[in-house]
Design brief:
Elements lengths: L16 E7 L4 H17 L3 E7 L2 E2 L7 E2 L4 H15 L4 H13 L8 H10 L4 H9 L1 H17 L6 E4 L2 E6 L3 E2 L7 H11 L1
Parallel strand pairs: 1-2
Antiparallel strand pairs: 1-5, 3-4, 5-6, 6-7
Helix pairs in contact: 1-3, 1-7, 2-5, 2-6, 3-4, 5-6
């Protein structure tokens, strides 16, 4: 099922295929998966939804309530991505935000202006995004995200689940990807699960 330009499929959130990305905002493997999904999202965004589960260790005394493999900057980047996902007008808007952030990969979580610029250029409600990213909502989303990854038992960034099933892992190379790892492969499987 391909999205025709200008056509809108009538779906409710529960009808959509859930694509879960178990990632870290400053992980090069996550960057590779997100780059592949930059070609997937425009094709099938109307029949899919994205969930981000960040791999980190819950630590109540840590700055962001968890310790992240690539430091506090990564935790900050994770929160920004979760807030953008939560306050997106639609999935393509979130993906524009993520692509913008990833285009300055070394600055994720380090440059506070970067996230705001990306939110604005992607068409997000910047006030809602900023409130989320700087107050309790973002921390709560992050904690829930880490709990989701722990509950799923996923420890490797980047791991992709489609419709509740392990679909692929990128960890210095693609593995556990019986259906392939090109955009067309993911599109086929998302359509197949719809």
């Amino acid at each position: 099922l391909m999205q025709e330009p200008g056509a809108q499929l009538l779906t409710t959130k529960s009808d959509k295929v859930l694509v879960e990305l178990f990632v870290m905002s400053r992980c090069p493997d996550a960057l590779k998966v997100e780059d592949v999904f930059s070609s997937v999202v425009p094709a099938v965004y109307s029949i899919m939804d994205i969930q981000l589960s960040f791999i980190a260790a819950l630590q109540p005394n840590a700055t962001y309530g968890a310790t992240c493999m690539h430091g506090d900057e990564e935790c900050r980047g994770n929160i920004d991505e979760l807030c953008a996902l939560k306050h997106r007008p639609d999935l393509p808007s979130f993906w524009r935000f993520l692509t913008c952030l990833n285009s300055r990969f070394a600055d994720i979580g380090r440059d506070p202006d970067l996230s705001l610029k990306c939110a604005s250029s992607a068409g997000l409600d910047t006030a809602a995004f900023l409130t989320c990213a700087t107050q309790g909502e973002g921390l709560a989303l992050f904690k829930q995200s880490v709990e989701n990854a722990q509950f799923a038992g996923v420890k490797t960034s980047a791991t992709v689940y489609i419709d509740g099933k392990l679909r692929c892992v990128e960890d210095g190379g693609w593995r556990s990807c019986p259906g392939g790892y090109r955009p067309a492969d993911f599109i086929r499987d998302i359509c197949g699960a719809y």
